[in-house]
Amino acid sequence: MAAKWRELADKLARQIRDGDYAPGQQLPQIRELVEAGEGSKTTVHSAYKALEAEGLVTSFRGHGTVVRETSPLKRLGVARYDKAAWRDRDEAAFVAGRVASGWPYKRGVPTQRIGRVTAPAVVAAAYGLPEGAEVYAHTRLVKEDDQPTHTLTGYYRPEHVEGTRIAAPTPGPATRDGGFRVLYDAGYEVDRMREELFARVAKAEEAELLRLLPGEWVVELHRSAFTADGTLVEFAVGVHAATRFAWAYDFEVPDSAASR
Questions:
Q1: Coil, strand or helix: which one is 222?
Q2: Is 244 exposed, middle or buried (0-12, 13-18, 19+ CB in 10 A)?
Q3: Residue 232 neighbours by CB under 8 Å, 6+ apart
Q4: In contact, 211 and 147? CB cutoff 8 Å
Q5: Exposed (0-12), middle (13-18) or buried (19+): which is 96, by Cβ within 10 Å?
Q6: Coil, strand or helix at 181
Q7: Spatial distance between the Cα atoms of 141 and 74, rounded to a whole number of angstroms
Q8: pLDDT at 171 over 90
Q9: How many other CB atoms sit within 10 Å of the CB of residue 195?
């Protein structure tokens, strides 16, 4: 026989999957289920923690336990970088995933922090910079409604962005069409991308910022943007809440023999 908390967790999970509780809807307060005879306070609390661990709900201090969005945001690994979008249509790269997901979007994701910083080791290595070298860093926390989805920090060599909106002293969107357009206007057209993905458990500060449970996983993204001659003009590090994204890659299969 299953424990009482497990039975309650399974019951609530069925109700969530059947649509009795919609995404974004708050579950009953613990005391309400206790008063309804669903079990003790400990039983209900354990059931809610189980639902959290299964990714069905999220608990926020002062806001109760809320059903999570069931459809993750699509992150298009190739189509998001379509030049016609950011160069010609004033659409930053992040717009592609939101359109594909049927989600609304706002232009110009605010930049929370901006300025010259000592290049972290991974950034210095990517750019081939000596220890202690400085780069420009744009750090932003991206949200859907009030729920954080990921952080993204773009790092740039000063000689590439001095005098552009990327190096502006006031935090805010670099431009409505994104940093790639700023680089393009400065004479650095992004022509090739490389993305590396690393799955790991969130650090304590990341879990707090992204509103994750202890032990939840994130996907760390390292993105390198190159010009046609191989110049690295942006190195970005993103930390994505793993359960809030679906990563999609659609590309032609190469044939190295055909190019010989």
A1: strand
A2: buried
A3: 126, 127, 224, 225, 226
A4: yes
A5: buried
A6: helix
A7: 18
A8: no
A9: 17
Residue 222 pLDDT exceeds 90: yes
- pTM of the complete model: 0.72
Contact by Cβ (8 Å): 142, 149 = yes
Tell me which DSSP letter residue 257 carries: G
- Helix ranges restricted to H, the chain: 4-17, 30-35, 41-53, 83, 95-101, 121-127, 158-161, 179-185, 204-210
| Cα–Cα dist 184/196, whole Å | 23
> What single DSSP character describes residue 169?
S
What is residue 187's DSSP assignment?
Answer: T
CA count, 13 A, side-chain hemisphere, 160: 26
CA distance 94 to 87: 14
* Listed residue (71, 72, 74, 55) closest to 247, CA to CA: 74
Average pLDDT over residues 10-14: 92
- Signed CA dihedral, 234, 239, 244, 250: sign only: positive
Q: Render pLDDT for 21-34 as a digit per residue (tens, 0 to 9).
A: 988 899 999 999 99
pLDDT band at 95 (very low <50, low <70, confident <90, very high): low
Residue 174 CA to residue 202 CA, distance in Å, equals: 28
Extract the tokens encoding 242: 């793993």
Q: Which residue from 99, 204, 208 is spatially nearest to 148, judged by alpha carbons?
A: 208
